[in-house]
């Protein structure tokens, strides 16, 4: 019944730190997420964003090996219901991380392929296109294209424009070549 109280945001952040959610054991995290998903009414966008940050941000950014099955279960369950605030918080943070971030990239690809609703897949694409393209992000774009969602024309134009502008920088990249091929295959009717 804690969450049925209309908590204001500082209170919710205080509650999270009181419960030590950012460092709690992962099996507890899974149980906590399934409890959250059962709540009615649904969490507000802002509450879900705060919880996404408190529950997952530190864990995801510090991944140096694949996430445990508990962490993955918690992530996918939360993400399946609150994918928009989840993307706004987590995907944004991963994109801004310098360096390779191989595990984070793999995780993002997995979430795009398995969990996100179409609207959130578009959000991820627009978030990726807002930052300078790097080899690290090409698999994420590939995962987005793998979903074969219908993209709004302006987003597709931005994707094609970005790929054209970046072509010289990726002259020797196999991933880039695969990506361009995928765009031409999936969206051949819209790309002239």
TrEMBL record:
InterPro entries per record: FANCE, Fanconi_anaemia_gr_E_prot_C
Ranges annotated as spanning the membrane: none
Pfam families recorded: FA_FANCE
GO biological processes: interstrand cross-link repair
GO annotations of cellular component type: Fanconi anaemia nuclear complex
Ranges where the Fanconi Anaemia group E protein C-terminal domain occurs: 8-191
Gene3D superfamilies tied to this protein: 1.25.40.480
Protein name: FANCE protein
Organism: Chaetops frenatus (Rufous rock-jumper)
């Amino acid at each position: 019944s804690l969450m049925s109280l209309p908590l204001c945001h500082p209170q919710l952040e205080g509650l999270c730190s009181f419960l030590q959610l950012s460092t709690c054991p992962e099996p507890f995290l899974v149980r906590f997420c399934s409890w959250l998903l059962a709540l009615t009414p649904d969490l507000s966008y802002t509450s879900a964003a705060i919880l996404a940050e408190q529950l997952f941000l530190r864990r995801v950014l510090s991944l140096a090996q694949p996430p445990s099955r508990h962490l993955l279960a918690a992530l996918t369950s939360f993400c399946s219901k609150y994918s928009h605030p989840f993307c706004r918080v987590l995907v944004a943070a991963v994109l801004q991380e310098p360096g390779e971030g191989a595990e984070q990239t793999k995780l993002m690809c997995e979430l795009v392929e398995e969990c996100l609703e179409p609207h959130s897949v578009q959000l991820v694409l627009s978030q990726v296109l807002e930052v300078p393209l790097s080899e690290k992000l090409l698999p994420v774009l590939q995962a987005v294209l793998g979903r074969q969602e219908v993209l709004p024309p302006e987003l597709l134009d931005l994707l094609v424009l970005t790929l054209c502008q970046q072509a010289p920088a990726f002259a020797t990249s196999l991933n880039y070549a695969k990506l361009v091929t995928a765009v031409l295959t999936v969206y051949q009717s819209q790309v002239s």
